[in-house]
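Input chain follows. Return structure tokens only.
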Amino acid sequence: MKENKEENRRRFLQKLIAGTSLMGMAPYLMSLQGCSKDDDTLEEDPPKDDDTSEIPRRTFGNTGESLSIYSLGGQGTLEVDGRQDKATWIINRAIDRGINYIDTSAYYGISARGISERYIGEVMKTRRDEVFLATKTLSRTYDGAMSDLDKSLKNLQTDKIDLWQMHSIRANEDVDEIFSDTGCLKAFEEARDQGIVRFLGITGHESPVPLKALIDRYPFDTVLMALNAADKYYRSFIEGLLPTAVEKNMGIIGMKIPARGRIFDNNGILTMKEAMSYTLSLPVSTIIIGIREVAELEKNIQIAKEFAQLSADEMLAIEQKAEPYYKELMFFKGLSNWPY
């Protein structure tokens, strides 16, 4: 029985791996414009970069865009008040090194909402045309979403958002609110029609069920979902949502890759390379990771540059490493007491 279950999983992973290539989402190179402790140290000079190779890019669903397979998330240092110099240094370095997708939210900020957007906005003043910029709203109402969008535009110091996302879809009640007469979908459509935002997306990390209900009901352009090596052990996004998103040729973004560093604990997956390579072997357009230090950024970029597609057996082996502590790695699905 165990052998049959493993073989079924192997075939499932093989299908996803084949889909990456068949859908034209395999990585390709394009020229771009030019895990340490958290502290307040700011490097005076960027690390020397003798590597002239570039981060591979993948197509972003039906948007016509292509993204660096590794992208910058707006958490970590980017959401901590009082660290603007360090945060803007990280953002500039990421763009210098070829990252062209930055993700944030109107709600990111350890002590106050909007800190992440404001830090990114300081860089966008001069580098807006170098990145595909994404942000989010948690509001499910028209008025609330429009208010968040206005704040996001001001914080990000731009007049256009590339991707606006409905943040943290958790339950079927969210779906009902979104499609109600006063729901946020009307705000999203209006903002798109007015040219304030280009594409519409959804995000979620607790359950694939409401997200699938949304994309079955409406042609969203993108979906941001939690995808790490412990996914299959509880409320699997890889099984319950990813195939549908691939079928609809959506732009797919993976998050929670290292589960905020917990994926390295308990003698499980010991390297970021395994964590990133596992998710990048799925048919995703890019993965986002929040970082604390530039050293983390540099390490992740090198992993992305050297990425090689894993086989189904290699992915199975990584999944098995994660099994003993999958509850800790699924903290964002409510399986532990850790905060989000």
